[in-house]
Amino acid sequence: MERKIRVLIGKPGLDGHDRGAKVVARALRDAGMEVIYTGLRQTPEQIVNTALQEDVDAIGLSILSGAHMHLFPEVVKLAREKGLDDVIIFGGGIIPEKDIPKLKEAGVMEVFLPGTPTDAVVKFLREKVKRR
Amino acid sequence: MAHKSKNLKEWEETTLNEFIKKRPERKEKFTTISGTEIKRLYTEDDIEDFDYHGKLGYPGEYPFTRGVYATMYRGRLWTMRQFSGFGTAEETNKRYKFLLENGQTGLSVAFHLPTIMGVDSDSQLAKGEVGKCGVAIDALKDMEILFDGIDLEKITTSMTINAPAAILLAMYVAVAEKQGADIKKISGTIQNDILKEYIAQKTWIFPPKPSMKLIVDTFEWCSENLPKWNSISISGYHIREAGSTAVQELAFTLRDGMEYVEWAVERGLDVDKFAPRLSFFFNSHNDFFEEIAKFRAARRIWARVMKERYNAKNPNSWKLRFHTQTSGFSLTAQQPYNNIVRVAIQALAAVLGGTQSLHTNSMDETLALPSEFAVQIALRTQQILAYETGVANTIDPLAGSYFIEALTDKMEKDAMEYIEKIDKMGGMVAAIEAGFPQREIQDAAYEYQKAVESKEKVIVGVNEFVVEEDQPVDILYIDSGVEEKQIERLNKIRKERDKARWQKSLQELKNAAEKDVNLMPFILDAVKAYATIGEIVNTLKEVYGEYEEPIFI
After folding, report:
1. Which residues numbered 111-130 in A keep a CB inside 8 Å of some CB on B?
2. What are φ and ψ of residue B155, in 5° steps?
3. Would you say residue B7 lies in a domain?
């Protein structure tokens, strides 16, 4: 039997806007993936530890507070340090376009902005997650 | 065609039937953005037995459906109040002066997340967040700079602050005193609405019981010391932004309001002493008539509940006064200039619904905090409505419309069903602990997303009328230098304050929190001793603990 794609949806930072994270989590689940949602205000350490324990294929980060430039790269850095080399890290939220190239350079594979259909996230994960 | 129908049924069977055979309607079902079905035509049949005096009454009179004041905008326009704050106190002070020079009539403070969460700027948790989505306020010193050169006796200030609201209110009062103002004359609002935090916005600190206690403390203290201050702004805005329908926004907000009244009455406060200072805050979303009906229904329900359920005698206790913000969620990152049009229509709905104050979103807010250019257009939108369109000339101009009255009745009926359901669950705190409103909102948000993705709901520029290349807009960018500057000031405050006084104030606050006394005087003392928000919140956490959310998707 083919292994289901496992995704961790994490909310780093101090903001509590979880509408997007939860809609995406539910859409991924409805698309047949296994979804773990961390809950609010998780530190990068907590997110990476959960990813490790849950053996996920991807980590999706949602943030609307403007702290993405600090927190997204921090998650990537810690994940790689812990040996999560193949885990795909993507994000979404209120993120100025000019930050996107820098985030990608830091190892965030994709950044989804408001108005993205959930379908696009599903397709992205199906394409990128390598069978392990 | 000379046929003239004698009633609706005859019209449907003749004129309509013939027409539809030739030209079918665009779709089978027409619904509001909340999914409520809307009929083809509303007639007098829809408001049968309409009791004008029972349902509407006159402006300034029970049940206030037509408005809370006798002259409404003919007497005084709504307050134009743009929510604003970013970077350090100096930068935000500059923006406030810009807005006031441009004809804004009230201030509205946006705090950065560390302040909202009761965390100091130098905390590990604040990294990357300082000054990003609001102004950084750690201690009284920051607040003094924020209002430098602004006369607090003359301006009204709204502060969007919830879990630590008592602390920021204390800082504001302390600044006013330093300016030499008579605090009996200062006016404004603290949001102070923790229930909608648990339900929707989710920036809580303490568990529900001590949080409710702190709120009742502010009601009590304000009713004795700040007679012109709105001690709470019971908010549907965030509930709607989190994905609720219009009815859910209405029902959960009003039931939250009822919960506060019940907790305050339970403490032994006289309802007529604090209820006149309760205020509300609603969202104005895309569906024009649904929003107007929501505002009108809100006034009617609140008046009835306050009079009949809580036996308030003072007519001011029956009046639902509210602020409105246009819907941030409705804005699109795609073709952002279109947002100017959305905001104008949402603002019009708020005005036709009788709002007391209004924030119009800036077109660039799905990208970042608003630029000066964008916020000026947003303010001008209000000024155009107020001075050019004529909509402020008469009171409640849509009253008597078959459609509006039928929709207002339906809003009221559907909201009351939710309210009764929450009553049966044991009230709002119990309902929140059971996850009820949270799940209702989450389900509605997901339904809406599916409707957009299936194009059942069209969003211009997002799922229809898409363009490849967007016209770029210049956005406000907060650089990370803010964090350094703020931490530097924080260190200076810590070094320069009177240590003994500071320590004593925190110890006394802790002692008071362990007893059952009103904490406002103790918080005021700590603030004046330049205790930081993080220090005060941590002191209270030692006694009260922290809230943990039930997690589900």
Report:
1. 113-115, 117-119
2. -90, 155
3. no
Distances in Å between the Cα of A39 and the Cα atoms of A15, A25, B552, B553 are 11, 11, 8, 10
CA–CA gap between residue B70 and residue B67 (Å, rounded): 7
**Would you say residue B433 lies in a domain?**
yes
CA atoms of B242 and B237, how far apart (whole Å): 9
pLDDT at B104: 86
d(CA A45, CA A29): 25
In a domain, B549, yes or no: no
Tokens of B128: 């990357």
Strand B278-284 versus strand A88-93 pairing type: unpaired
Half-sphere exposure of B441 (CA within 13 A, CB side): 32
Q: Is the omega angle on the peptide bond into residue B63 within 30 degrees of 0, that is, cis?
A: yes
The answer to whether residues B120 and B126 touch, using CB atoms and an 8 Å cutoff, is yes
Give the span between the Cα atoms of A115 and A92, in whole angstroms: 11
CA distance from start to end of chain B: 57
Q: Exposure string (b/e) for B166-203, b if CB count within 10 Å is 16 or more?
A: bbbbbbbbbbbeebebebeebbbbbbbbbbbbbbbbbb
Asked whether residue B466 is assigned to any structural domain, the reply reads: no
Contact A23 B463 (CB under 8 A): no
Q: What is the CATH number of domain A6-127?
A: 3.40.50.280
State the virtual CA torsion across B185, B187, B191, B192 in degrees, nearest 10.
Answer: 10
Give residue for tokens 């039931």: B255
Nearest CA in chain A to B551: A39
Q: Which of A9, A18, A99 is most worth mutating to test chain B (most B CB atoms within 10 A of its CB)?
A: A18
Domain with B343, as residue range(s), is: 47-453
Q: How far apart are CA B527 and CA B530, in angstroms?
A: 5
Residue B228's closest CA among B278, B187, B171, B275?
B187
What pLDDT does residue A131 have?
Answer: 52
Q: In the numeric block, which tokens belong to residue B356?
A: 């007391």
Contact B17, B3 (CB under 8 A): no
Q: How far is B366 from chain A (nearest CA, A)?
A: 6
Domain map of chain A by residue range?
6-127
With 0-12 / 13-18 / 19 or more C-beta atoms within 10 angstroms meaning exposed / middle / buried, residue A24 is: buried
Core vs surface per residue B137-148: b (16+ CB within 10 A) or e: bbbbbbbebbbe
Query: What distance in Å separates the CA atoms of residue B280 and residue B255, rounded to the nearest whole number?
Result: 12
- Write down the pLDDT at residue B65: 98
Q: Cα(B258)–Cα(B372) distance, rounded to whole angstroms?
A: 39
| Token duo for residue B264 | 């305050």
Q: What pLDDT score does A132 carry?
A: 47
The predicted pLDDT at position A1 comes to 59
User: Can you tell me the distance from the alpha carbon of B167 to that of B164, in angstroms, rounded to the nearest whole number?
Assistant: 5
* CATH number for the domain harbouring residue B255: 3.20.20.240
Q: How many domains does chain B have?
A: 1
Measured in residues, chain A has a length of 132
Q: Report, as ranges of residue numbers, the positions in chain B whose pLDDT lies below 50.
A: none
- The DSSP secondary structure of B444-509, one letter per residue, reads HHHHHHHHHHTTSS--BTTTBS--SSPPP-------THHHHHHHHHHHHHHHHS-HHHHHHHHHHH
Q: Which value does ipTM take for this structure? A: 0.91
Hey, is B232 helix, strand or coil?
strand
Residues of B in contact with A13 (CB under 8 A): 113, 128-129
